[in-house]
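Data deposition worksheet. Section B asks for the primary sequence of the deposited chain exactly as it was used as input, without tags or linkers unless they were present during the calculation. Section C holds the resulting structure in token form. Section D is free text for depositor observations; keep each observation to a single sentence. Incomplete worksheets are returned to the depositor.
Section A, Depositor: J.P.
Section B:
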Amino acid sequence: MRKTIVTAAGPNMAPMLTTISLPFFESYAKRHGYRMQLVYVTEDDADRSSATAKSVRWQKLRLMRSALEQSDVVVWFDADILICRTDTDILDSLGATDYQGLVLHSVPSEKRTNPNTGVWVIKNTEKAFRFLDTAMEIGMPAGRWADQGAVMRALGWILGDEHYEGARMPDTPNEFMDGTAWVPIGWNQPYLERYLGRPMEPNPFAIHFMGMSLPDRMKYMREVANRYTIQGHEQKDVIGDHSSKRLTLGFQVLKEVPSVLRPLVDDVVACYRRHHADLRSVFLIGSVAVGEWTEGVSDLDIVGVVDNKFTIEDEAPRRRELLELGKAWPQVSFVNNSALSLAALHAENPEAMTLGRARIIAVTGLFLWGEELDFQDYLPTVAAMAYGRAARAKILMERYRSGVINEPFRSNPRLLARSCAKAAIRVLSGITILRGAVFYAAPYQTVAMVAKHAPEAIALAYRALAIVDGAVSEPNEAMGIAEQAVELFYSLYPERS
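Section C:
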């Protein structure tokens, strides 16, 4: 069964998520066989009642639907949820005929009962997709609630006044109420000291630090988190403890391409076959290959393996064709395509860029076509991956600065800036894995590891991730971020002889 935990945060909530909540989410995910999907939102507002803050929360519906397309079960945790117990899977709270589960919150002083979407479990069923689509079609309602208000309307809730005072269950359940399970309050318990008088569970699974200022959230969450010990999240600072080890992966390579992308992938493979007479095989790599992709944001990363060496000019026709093909597919940012020469790889001293492609195939490669070549000999140690990423970013920035830029990056400044930002994030991931962090392919999870294991790199990581997520940036600025990341890496871990 494919199970995914999804959570998200913007600039204001991200420090709280990555430094407090996320280790507890990861521990729960590991115990119950979930993969983690962390989404970083570029805009946010500390004022939770503002239009910007509401629009951020509204994205929950889209993110859950996207994750559900690639999963059998999706669990959503708000960033201000703290997992207190991992002995039970929330999925066990659903019956065989239930398609989703939410916790009911009751506020006696307001005569209000409502579902709270801070913790939400949903199964991949036709009804679940119709429910999410219905909630999104309702649109973001006026008032203090965004996705939660739409969910209540989709369930046919009696809404009460404009502040939801007097809100209660419908007298006659609609079709979406049938199959909605009401999960025990202990899965989404309001922080006790803040909400005295509400129904409480003495030994909750999860506490929700809602309805308070950001400083208060941080304060109370830290206080409660310090009462719990989550194994496997101790920070390691000594490079010698990890550098000779193999990577600890936070993902598994998919067995097949996500169905929504299959036609695009087939067209990409056909393009490689047209342009490379010596093509041996084609691999999907990166975030899509390991199921960590975000629809409309992630690239489709493809590597074609060829026999002979080639030049930039040799690759240009394929790159131009795939640039145009990618424009017709809004599910991906663009088709990021490259080639790996076996002749160059088997040379006496293969260059860093060539080795890097072989290593990423070994770690994340999903075979697509041709001869199923084995790259397991190129599985990197922690040190090899970390130093290799720094070396490749350094070479790439030197090439970009000198004007050696492949298409589509040469003609598209936005993609060039994004390429530089992703290079920066990869470099910073090297710092984290040298300190014992789990290795992730996707930028979002990688930045979460940076926030946890490399506090000196957080500012750079957030700047880079904002560009990856679409923030406007001149290529020169993004190159500078990548160069600063390289400089920081080598200041911490000098180049080895």
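Section D:
The two ends are 46 Å apart (CA to CA).
Residues 230-242 have pLDDT under 50 and may be disordered.
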